[in-house]
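=== RUN LOG ===
request id: a7f3
mode: sequence -> structure
chains: 1
length: 414
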Amino acid sequence: MQKYSIIQSLNLPEYKIERIIKQNAEEIHFEIRAYKRKKMICSGCGECHTQSIHGFTKVVVEDLRLLNQRVYLHVIKRRQWCPSDGKTHVEQIEWLETRATVTKRYAKEIYRLTSITTNQEAGWYLRMDDEKIYRIDKAILEKLFEERLNPTPVSKNNSVDEVAWKKHHRYLTNVIDADEKVVIWNAKGRKSEVLDKYYKSLGEKNCLAIESVAMDGAKTYISSTKKNATNALIVLDKFHIVQKASNAADKVRRDELSKARKNKDAELIALTSCKQRFILLKKKKNLTERQSLSLNKLCKINQPIYRAMLLKEDFLQVYDFENVEDAEQHLYDWIDQALFSGLEPMFEFACSVLYKMQYILNWYKKRISSAISEGFNNKIKRLKRMAYGYRDIEYFKLKIHQHCGYLNPKRFSH
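=== RESULT ===
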Protein backbone atom coordinates (compact mmCIF):
# COMPACT_ATOMS: atom_id res chain seq x y z
CA MET A 1 0.00 0.00 0.00
CA GLN A 2 2.86 2.35 0.85
CA LYS A 3 4.56 1.74 -2.51
CA TYR A 4 1.26 2.19 -4.32
CA SER A 5 0.70 5.58 -2.63
CA ILE A 6 4.21 6.70 -3.56
CA ILE A 7 3.86 5.65 -7.19
CA GLN A 8 0.56 7.52 -7.30
CA SER A 9 2.33 10.61 -5.96
CA LEU A 10 5.08 10.22 -8.55
CA ASN A 11 2.40 9.96 -11.26
CA LEU A 12 4.23 7.39 -13.37
CA PRO A 13 1.55 5.16 -14.91
CA GLU A 14 2.52 1.58 -15.85
CA TYR A 15 5.56 1.71 -13.57
CA LYS A 16 6.04 0.12 -10.16
CA ILE A 17 8.49 0.68 -7.31
CA GLU A 18 10.81 -2.25 -6.79
CA ARG A 19 12.43 -0.86 -3.67
CA ILE A 20 13.60 2.26 -1.88
CA ILE A 21 17.38 2.25 -2.31
CA LYS A 22 18.24 5.19 -0.06
CA GLN A 23 16.40 7.75 2.03
CA ASN A 24 17.44 10.64 4.28
CA ALA A 25 16.33 14.19 5.09
CA GLU A 26 17.75 15.55 1.82
CA GLU A 27 16.94 12.95 -0.82
CA ILE A 28 15.22 9.68 -1.63
CA HIS A 29 16.14 7.07 -4.25
CA PHE A 30 13.56 4.76 -5.86
CA GLU A 31 14.25 1.79 -8.10
CA ILE A 32 11.40 1.51 -10.61
CA ARG A 33 10.59 -0.69 -13.59
CA ALA A 34 7.75 -1.01 -16.08
CA TYR A 35 5.00 -3.59 -15.67
CA LYS A 36 5.30 -6.57 -17.98
CA ARG A 37 2.07 -5.61 -19.73
CA LYS A 38 3.59 -2.27 -20.79
CA LYS A 39 4.61 -2.42 -24.42
CA MET A 40 8.24 -1.68 -25.13
CA ILE A 41 8.91 1.07 -27.68
CA CYS A 42 12.23 0.67 -29.48
CA SER A 43 14.43 3.76 -29.25
CA GLY A 44 16.01 2.85 -32.58
CA CYS A 45 12.93 2.85 -34.82
CA GLY A 46 10.12 4.00 -32.50
CA GLU A 47 8.09 0.83 -33.08
CA CYS A 48 6.86 -1.95 -30.77
CA HIS A 49 8.41 -5.37 -31.41
CA THR A 50 7.27 -8.83 -30.38
CA GLN A 51 10.78 -10.22 -29.82
CA SER A 52 11.74 -11.34 -26.34
CA ILE A 53 13.61 -9.05 -23.96
CA HIS A 54 17.36 -9.17 -24.58
CA GLY A 55 18.40 -7.77 -21.21
CA PHE A 56 18.19 -4.81 -18.84
CA THR A 57 20.11 -1.63 -18.08
CA LYS A 58 19.71 1.01 -15.39
CA VAL A 59 19.77 4.81 -15.61
CA VAL A 60 19.53 7.34 -12.77
CA VAL A 61 17.50 10.50 -13.33
CA GLU A 62 16.32 13.27 -11.02
CA ASP A 63 12.60 14.04 -10.75
CA LEU A 64 10.46 16.72 -9.12
CA ARG A 65 10.83 17.04 -5.37
CA LEU A 66 8.56 15.02 -3.11
CA LEU A 67 7.81 16.51 0.33
CA ASN A 68 10.88 18.75 -0.06
CA GLN A 69 13.15 15.78 -0.73
CA ARG A 70 15.17 15.46 -3.93
CA VAL A 71 13.86 12.45 -5.81
CA TYR A 72 16.15 10.17 -7.82
CA LEU A 73 14.67 7.44 -9.99
CA HIS A 74 16.79 4.39 -10.77
CA VAL A 75 14.93 3.33 -13.89
CA ILE A 76 15.38 -0.23 -15.12
CA LYS A 77 15.17 -0.14 -18.90
CA ARG A 78 14.53 -3.14 -21.08
CA ARG A 79 16.77 -3.96 -24.05
CA GLN A 80 15.53 -5.60 -27.22
CA TRP A 81 16.83 -6.60 -30.63
CA CYS A 82 15.49 -4.38 -33.44
CA PRO A 83 14.81 -6.10 -36.81
CA SER A 84 15.00 -2.74 -38.61
CA ASP A 85 18.76 -2.31 -38.21
CA GLY A 86 19.76 -5.59 -36.55
CA LYS A 87 21.00 -3.84 -33.39
CA THR A 88 20.00 -4.02 -29.75
CA HIS A 89 18.34 -0.90 -28.36
CA VAL A 90 16.99 0.15 -24.98
CA GLU A 91 13.33 1.06 -24.67
CA GLN A 92 12.06 4.58 -25.23
CA ILE A 93 10.27 6.14 -22.24
CA GLU A 94 7.73 8.87 -22.91
CA TRP A 95 8.59 10.93 -19.83
CA LEU A 96 12.34 10.70 -20.30
CA GLU A 97 14.62 12.01 -23.06
CA THR A 98 17.40 9.80 -24.41
CA ARG A 99 20.57 10.13 -22.30
CA ALA A 100 18.83 12.68 -20.05
CA THR A 101 19.78 13.14 -16.39
CA VAL A 102 16.40 14.61 -15.38
CA THR A 103 12.81 13.80 -16.27
CA LYS A 104 10.95 15.91 -18.84
CA ARG A 105 8.70 17.49 -16.21
CA TYR A 106 11.70 18.45 -14.05
CA ALA A 107 13.42 19.92 -17.11
CA LYS A 108 10.28 21.97 -17.73
CA GLU A 109 10.46 23.38 -14.19
CA ILE A 110 14.11 24.30 -14.74
CA TYR A 111 13.16 26.08 -17.97
CA ARG A 112 10.41 28.01 -16.16
CA LEU A 113 12.80 29.01 -13.38
CA THR A 114 15.52 30.22 -15.75
CA SER A 115 12.96 32.46 -17.46
CA ILE A 116 12.82 34.64 -14.34
CA THR A 117 16.35 34.37 -12.95
CA THR A 118 19.92 33.47 -13.93
CA ASN A 119 21.27 29.96 -14.34
CA GLN A 120 23.57 30.51 -11.38
CA GLU A 121 20.72 31.49 -9.08
CA ALA A 122 18.55 28.64 -10.40
CA GLY A 123 21.40 26.20 -9.75
CA TRP A 124 21.76 27.46 -6.19
CA TYR A 125 18.01 27.10 -5.54
CA LEU A 126 17.82 23.60 -7.03
CA ARG A 127 21.21 22.58 -5.59
CA MET A 128 22.41 21.76 -9.06
CA ASP A 129 25.51 22.74 -11.04
CA ASP A 130 24.80 25.84 -13.17
CA GLU A 131 26.55 24.22 -16.14
CA LYS A 132 23.99 21.43 -15.97
CA ILE A 133 21.21 24.03 -15.76
CA TYR A 134 22.63 25.65 -18.89
CA ARG A 135 22.64 22.38 -20.87
CA ILE A 136 19.08 21.46 -19.85
CA ASP A 137 17.73 24.96 -20.51
CA LYS A 138 19.43 25.23 -23.90
CA ALA A 139 18.14 21.81 -25.00
CA ILE A 140 14.54 22.77 -24.17
CA LEU A 141 14.86 26.18 -25.85
CA GLU A 142 16.29 24.60 -29.00
CA LYS A 143 13.40 22.16 -29.15
CA LEU A 144 10.82 24.90 -28.58
CA PHE A 145 12.53 27.06 -31.18
CA GLU A 146 12.07 24.34 -33.81
CA GLU A 147 8.41 23.96 -32.84
CA ARG A 148 7.42 27.64 -32.68
CA LEU A 149 9.94 29.64 -34.71
CA ASN A 150 10.81 27.34 -37.59
CA PRO A 151 9.64 28.45 -40.09
CA THR A 152 9.88 32.12 -39.12
CA PRO A 153 6.49 33.56 -38.05
CA VAL A 154 4.93 35.91 -40.59
CA SER A 155 3.97 39.43 -39.50
CA LYS A 156 2.53 42.42 -41.36
CA ASN A 157 4.00 45.23 -39.24
CA ASN A 158 7.57 44.92 -38.02
CA SER A 159 10.07 46.88 -35.98
CA VAL A 160 13.79 46.38 -36.61
CA ASP A 161 16.61 47.45 -34.31
CA GLU A 162 20.02 46.34 -33.08
CA VAL A 163 21.31 45.75 -29.55
CA ALA A 164 24.89 45.32 -28.33
CA TRP A 165 25.62 41.86 -26.91
CA LYS A 166 29.37 42.29 -26.43
CA LYS A 167 32.00 45.01 -26.21
CA HIS A 168 33.71 46.52 -29.26
CA HIS A 169 30.56 47.03 -31.33
CA ARG A 170 29.26 43.46 -31.38
CA TYR A 171 25.57 43.66 -32.26
CA LEU A 172 22.46 41.53 -32.66
CA THR A 173 19.66 42.44 -35.07
CA ASN A 174 16.18 41.85 -33.65
CA VAL A 175 12.96 41.77 -35.67
CA ILE A 176 9.78 42.36 -33.66
CA ASP A 177 6.16 41.75 -34.59
CA ALA A 178 4.67 45.16 -33.78
CA ASP A 179 1.13 43.74 -33.59
CA GLU A 180 1.86 40.77 -31.31
CA LYS A 181 4.70 42.60 -29.51
CA VAL A 182 7.14 39.68 -29.58
CA VAL A 183 10.63 39.09 -30.96
CA ILE A 184 10.23 36.77 -33.95
CA TRP A 185 13.78 36.65 -35.36
CA ASN A 186 17.33 37.63 -34.46
CA ALA A 187 20.85 37.16 -35.78
CA LYS A 188 24.40 38.33 -35.10
CA GLY A 189 25.47 41.55 -36.85
CA ARG A 190 23.68 44.60 -38.21
CA LYS A 191 24.66 44.66 -41.87
CA SER A 192 22.16 44.52 -44.71
CA GLU A 193 23.18 40.89 -45.36
CA VAL A 194 21.99 40.00 -41.86
CA LEU A 195 18.48 41.39 -42.40
CA ASP A 196 18.47 39.75 -45.84
CA LYS A 197 18.56 36.40 -44.03
CA TYR A 198 15.33 37.27 -42.23
CA TYR A 199 13.52 38.13 -45.46
CA LYS A 200 14.92 35.01 -47.10
CA SER A 201 13.55 32.87 -44.25
CA LEU A 202 10.07 34.32 -44.90
CA GLY A 203 10.01 33.65 -48.62
CA GLU A 204 9.14 36.03 -51.45
CA LYS A 205 5.36 35.75 -51.04
CA ASN A 206 5.41 36.59 -47.31
CA CYS A 207 7.86 39.45 -47.88
CA LEU A 208 5.42 41.06 -50.29
CA ALA A 209 2.68 40.83 -47.64
CA ILE A 210 4.63 43.00 -45.16
CA GLU A 211 2.83 46.33 -44.79
CA SER A 212 5.25 48.44 -42.74
CA VAL A 213 8.67 48.33 -41.09
CA ALA A 214 9.72 50.81 -38.38
CA MET A 215 13.43 51.45 -37.86
CA ASP A 216 15.91 54.03 -36.58
CA GLY A 217 17.17 55.06 -40.01
CA ALA A 218 20.16 52.72 -40.42
CA LYS A 219 21.10 52.61 -44.11
CA THR A 220 21.76 48.86 -43.97
CA TYR A 221 18.23 48.11 -42.75
CA ILE A 222 16.68 50.52 -45.27
CA SER A 223 18.51 48.99 -48.25
CA SER A 224 17.67 45.44 -47.22
CA THR A 225 13.97 46.26 -46.70
CA LYS A 226 13.71 48.14 -50.01
CA LYS A 227 15.25 45.18 -51.81
CA ASN A 228 13.21 42.40 -50.23
CA ALA A 229 9.92 43.82 -48.88
CA THR A 230 9.06 46.00 -51.88
CA ASN A 231 5.48 46.70 -50.74
CA ALA A 232 6.43 47.63 -47.18
CA LEU A 233 6.19 51.20 -45.94
CA ILE A 234 9.49 52.17 -44.29
CA VAL A 235 8.80 54.44 -41.30
CA LEU A 236 11.61 56.18 -39.46
CA ASP A 237 10.99 56.18 -35.75
CA LYS A 238 9.83 59.55 -34.41
CA PHE A 239 11.87 59.24 -31.22
CA HIS A 240 15.14 58.69 -33.11
CA ILE A 241 14.52 61.60 -35.46
CA VAL A 242 13.79 63.96 -32.55
CA GLN A 243 16.86 62.61 -30.77
CA LYS A 244 19.08 63.36 -33.77
CA ALA A 245 17.72 66.92 -33.95
CA SER A 246 18.52 67.41 -30.27
CA ASN A 247 21.99 65.90 -30.73
CA ALA A 248 22.69 68.34 -33.57
CA ALA A 249 21.75 71.27 -31.32
CA ASP A 250 23.90 69.82 -28.53
CA LYS A 251 26.83 69.50 -30.97
CA VAL A 252 26.54 73.26 -31.57
CA ARG A 253 26.65 73.78 -27.79
CA ARG A 254 29.81 71.68 -27.48
CA ASP A 255 31.49 73.60 -30.30
CA GLU A 256 30.64 76.92 -28.65
CA LEU A 257 31.82 75.62 -25.27
CA SER A 258 35.16 74.71 -26.83
CA LYS A 259 35.50 78.22 -28.25
CA ALA A 260 34.52 79.78 -24.92
CA ARG A 261 37.23 77.81 -23.13
CA LYS A 262 39.83 79.01 -25.61
CA ASN A 263 38.66 82.62 -25.16
CA LYS A 264 38.33 82.12 -21.37
CA ASP A 265 34.77 83.44 -21.41
CA ALA A 266 33.63 82.43 -17.93
CA GLU A 267 29.99 83.49 -18.39
CA LEU A 268 29.55 81.50 -21.60
CA ILE A 269 31.37 78.50 -20.13
CA ALA A 270 28.94 78.45 -17.20
CA LEU A 271 25.91 78.63 -19.51
CA THR A 272 27.14 75.97 -21.98
CA SER A 273 28.71 73.48 -19.55
CA CYS A 274 27.67 69.85 -19.50
CA LYS A 275 25.37 70.55 -16.55
CA GLN A 276 23.33 72.88 -18.77
CA ARG A 277 23.08 70.57 -21.81
CA PHE A 278 19.62 69.29 -20.86
CA ILE A 279 18.21 72.78 -21.41
CA LEU A 280 18.92 72.42 -25.13
CA LEU A 281 17.75 68.81 -25.25
CA LYS A 282 14.33 69.50 -23.73
CA LYS A 283 11.42 71.04 -25.60
CA LYS A 284 11.03 74.72 -24.88
CA LYS A 285 7.51 74.26 -23.48
CA ASN A 286 8.82 71.68 -20.98
CA LEU A 287 11.47 73.95 -19.45
CA THR A 288 11.14 75.17 -15.88
CA GLU A 289 11.12 78.89 -15.14
CA ARG A 290 14.76 78.81 -14.06
CA GLN A 291 15.79 76.84 -17.15
CA SER A 292 13.91 79.28 -19.40
CA LEU A 293 15.81 82.20 -17.89
CA SER A 294 19.14 80.45 -18.45
CA LEU A 295 18.20 79.64 -22.07
CA ASN A 296 17.12 83.21 -22.79
CA LYS A 297 20.35 84.55 -21.35
CA LEU A 298 22.38 82.05 -23.39
CA CYS A 299 20.57 82.94 -26.61
CA LYS A 300 21.25 86.64 -26.05
CA ILE A 301 25.00 86.26 -25.69
CA ASN A 302 25.53 83.49 -28.29
CA GLN A 303 23.95 83.64 -31.73
CA PRO A 304 24.97 80.12 -32.99
CA ILE A 305 23.26 78.43 -30.05
CA TYR A 306 20.24 80.70 -30.49
CA ARG A 307 19.93 79.69 -34.17
CA ALA A 308 20.41 76.00 -33.30
CA MET A 309 17.68 76.21 -30.68
CA LEU A 310 15.26 77.84 -33.11
CA LEU A 311 16.02 75.27 -35.80
CA LYS A 312 15.48 72.37 -33.40
CA GLU A 313 12.15 73.73 -32.14
CA ASP A 314 11.05 74.45 -35.70
CA PHE A 315 11.95 70.94 -36.85
CA LEU A 316 9.91 69.31 -34.08
CA GLN A 317 6.76 70.90 -35.49
CA VAL A 318 6.89 68.47 -38.43
CA TYR A 319 4.87 65.99 -36.35
CA ASP A 320 2.16 68.53 -35.43
CA PHE A 321 0.48 68.87 -38.84
CA GLU A 322 -2.81 67.25 -39.78
CA ASN A 323 -1.79 66.07 -43.25
CA VAL A 324 1.38 64.92 -44.97
CA GLU A 325 1.36 67.71 -47.59
CA ASP A 326 1.73 70.47 -45.01
CA ALA A 327 4.40 68.46 -43.17
CA GLU A 328 6.35 67.98 -46.40
CA GLN A 329 6.29 71.71 -47.21
CA HIS A 330 7.41 72.49 -43.68
CA LEU A 331 10.35 70.08 -44.02
CA TYR A 332 11.49 71.66 -47.31
CA ASP A 333 11.38 75.13 -45.73
CA TRP A 334 13.25 73.89 -42.67
CA ILE A 335 15.96 72.21 -44.78
CA ASP A 336 16.56 75.50 -46.64
CA GLN A 337 17.02 77.32 -43.33
CA ALA A 338 19.32 74.64 -41.90
CA LEU A 339 21.53 74.43 -45.00
CA PHE A 340 22.18 78.17 -44.91
CA SER A 341 22.38 78.53 -41.13
CA GLY A 342 26.17 78.37 -41.09
CA LEU A 343 26.02 75.63 -38.43
CA GLU A 344 27.84 72.49 -39.53
CA PRO A 345 25.93 70.06 -37.23
CA MET A 346 22.61 71.42 -38.51
CA PHE A 347 23.88 71.26 -42.09
CA GLU A 348 24.75 67.57 -41.69
CA PHE A 349 21.42 66.82 -40.05
CA ALA A 350 19.53 68.64 -42.82
CA CYS A 351 21.33 66.52 -45.47
CA SER A 352 20.27 63.38 -43.60
CA VAL A 353 16.66 64.62 -43.40
CA LEU A 354 16.65 65.41 -47.12
CA TYR A 355 17.87 61.89 -47.95
CA LYS A 356 15.32 60.20 -45.66
CA MET A 357 12.44 62.66 -46.01
CA GLN A 358 9.98 60.18 -47.48
CA TYR A 359 10.60 57.73 -44.65
CA ILE A 360 9.99 60.48 -42.10
CA LEU A 361 6.74 61.51 -43.79
CA ASN A 362 5.57 57.89 -43.94
CA TRP A 363 4.72 58.34 -40.26
CA TYR A 364 1.57 60.16 -41.43
CA LYS A 365 0.56 57.13 -43.48
CA LYS A 366 1.32 54.53 -40.81
CA ARG A 367 1.58 55.58 -37.15
CA ILE A 368 4.11 52.91 -36.24
CA SER A 369 7.33 53.32 -34.29
CA SER A 370 10.24 51.26 -33.03
CA ALA A 371 9.46 52.19 -29.42
CA ILE A 372 8.71 48.54 -28.72
CA SER A 373 12.21 47.66 -29.95
CA GLU A 374 13.71 50.14 -27.49
CA GLY A 375 11.65 48.59 -24.71
CA PHE A 376 12.84 45.11 -25.59
CA ASN A 377 16.41 46.38 -25.87
CA ASN A 378 16.21 47.46 -22.23
CA LYS A 379 14.97 43.99 -21.25
CA ILE A 380 17.78 42.38 -23.27
CA LYS A 381 20.41 44.61 -21.64
CA ARG A 382 19.01 43.74 -18.22
CA LEU A 383 19.13 40.04 -19.14
CA LYS A 384 22.77 40.42 -20.19
CA ARG A 385 23.72 42.30 -17.01
CA MET A 386 22.04 39.71 -14.78
CA ALA A 387 24.11 36.93 -16.36
CA TYR A 388 27.28 39.08 -16.58
CA GLY A 389 27.33 38.47 -20.32
CA TYR A 390 26.98 35.39 -22.54
CA ARG A 391 29.83 33.49 -24.14
CA ASP A 392 27.46 31.35 -26.22
CA ILE A 393 25.82 33.71 -28.74
CA GLU A 394 23.33 31.05 -29.90
CA TYR A 395 22.18 30.55 -26.31
CA PHE A 396 21.85 34.31 -25.85
CA LYS A 397 19.62 34.50 -28.93
CA LEU A 398 17.42 31.76 -27.48
CA LYS A 399 17.25 33.58 -24.12
CA ILE A 400 16.03 36.71 -25.93
CA HIS A 401 13.19 34.66 -27.40
CA GLN A 402 12.52 33.22 -23.94
CA HIS A 403 12.20 36.64 -22.31
CA CYS A 404 10.77 38.65 -25.21
CA GLY A 405 9.20 36.22 -27.67
CA TYR A 406 7.35 33.01 -28.40
CA LEU A 407 9.48 30.97 -25.97
CA ASN A 408 8.26 32.92 -22.94
CA PRO A 409 6.50 30.50 -20.54
CA LYS A 410 4.54 33.36 -18.96
CA ARG A 411 2.81 34.22 -22.20
CA PHE A 412 2.74 30.96 -24.10
CA SER A 413 2.00 27.60 -22.56
CA HIS A 414 4.69 24.93 -22.84
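=== NOTES ===
The first strand starts at residue 15 and ends at 23.
The chain has 17 helices and ten strands.
=== END ===
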